[in-house]
Each structure stands twice: as C-alpha cells, then as structure tokens.
Amino acid sequence: EEDVAVSKSENPTLSEDINRRICRINQFSRIYREHYWALMEELKLKHREYYWEYGRSPYVDEEEHEMHRANGIVAAAENSGSGNFVAVRGVANGAAAVSTRCSVHGCKAKAMALTRFCHMHILSDTKQKLYKPCSFSIKSSTTGPILCGKPILKSTVPSYCPLHFQKAEKHMVRALKKAGLNVSSTYKLAPKFHTVIAEYIRQIQLKRRAAQRAN
Question: Residue 102 half-sphere exposure, CB side, CA atoms within 13 Å?
Fold first, then answer.
C-alpha cells in the first residue's frame, strides 16, 4: 500500500524513494531465490533420470539378464489374460537394456548417452564430433607408424591419451637433458626455440648416420 501511495506521488521525499527501492529489491531477491531453488529441484530431477537410465554399471551379466528376460516372458504368458502389464513392462525394459549395449560385436560395455557405442568404440560412430584417435606412435612397420588410436577429446593438445602424454613428456625431458637443460618437468621450464631446433637436428643426423651404417 505504501508503494502504491508513493508511486502516485509527484514529489516523493528521499526517504520514501529509498524505502520504495528497498522494497522492490527485496521483492526481486525473493523472486530470484524462489526461481533458483525451482531450477535446482528441476536439475536434481533431470540428474536422477539421467543416472537411472545411463549411470548404471557398463558391464552386464549376460546369464542374469537372459534369466530375467526368460522369467519376464513366462510371467507375461501366464498373465496375458488377466490384464497385468507389469511383466510385459519388464520384458520391454529387458529389450531396452539390450539396446543400450555397445553395437560393436562382442563388446559387453554399455553405450554412451545419445549414441550406440561405448567410449572405447565411440570412433566407430561416423556422426560423432567430440572425439579423435590418439596419434602417439606405438611402433613402426613397413606400411608406416602404428598409432595408438584410443579415443580422446578433440580439444586435447597434444593429441595423446593420458598414458602416452606422460610418455611423451618423459621423452621431452630426456631430450632437453641431452641438449644441456637439466629440467625435471616440462611444466616448470619452457625451453628456448633454438634449443629445441638444435636437438631435433641432432636426432635427425643420428638417424641418418645410423641408416648410412646399415647400408
């Protein structure tokens, strides 16, 4: 009522104007607080639904699943005339469990959300845009270097999986020590560009000399 009275006043006093603004701020803060907690409750509900559908163990016991599926079919056959749809729903859930497995033959892992493949086989999905293969060279062959190929995020730089990133870091530290830089980690010291170039040239020359000796 005071706010309505002050709003109709042509020349409100300073105290009335301040009180009106404080009242509006309190109203907005209450609205925002209620809206925030409503969003939090909705987030909890969405998270619960997501975890219920995708957050279970990626490995499923095949024998147990087949047993549950067989029991569901038997129960559905026994209750087909009584209008009981609980068993039929169990069979549908069993079919859904089968469909959430990885589409790669022989893989028992659970498929990732919104795709038909697990994390190890996600690169088999031609439509995915989030992952790329690890480009670390495991060994060389006559046809060329054999790469790791494990899926990693496309934003990963360099394009190595965690295991091979540690190996590459150790190789870099070893190469820097040979070049005269005694460092324990590549995070603590960024080598000068000419030092890195000199080390690359030295390694190339060593490979050429080894190839000449072999010939």
Answer: 20
pTM of the model: 0.42
Whether 176 maps to a domain, the answer reads no
Q: Minimal CA–CA distance to 202: which of 182, 184, 167, 177?
A: 177
Give the β-pairing of 131-133 and 151-153: antiparallel
- Note whether 128 and 122 are within 8 A (CB): yes
Q: Is 214 helix (H, G, I), strand (E, B) or coil?
A: helix
Asked if the model's pLDDT at residue 119 lies above 60, the reply is yes
The closest of 18, 23, 30, 106 to 62, measured between CA atoms, is 106
How large is the angle between the packed helices 193-214 and 162-178, nearest 10 degrees?
90
Dist CA 117 CA 130 (whole Å): 13
**How many domains does the chain divide into?**
1
Position 7 in a domain:
yes
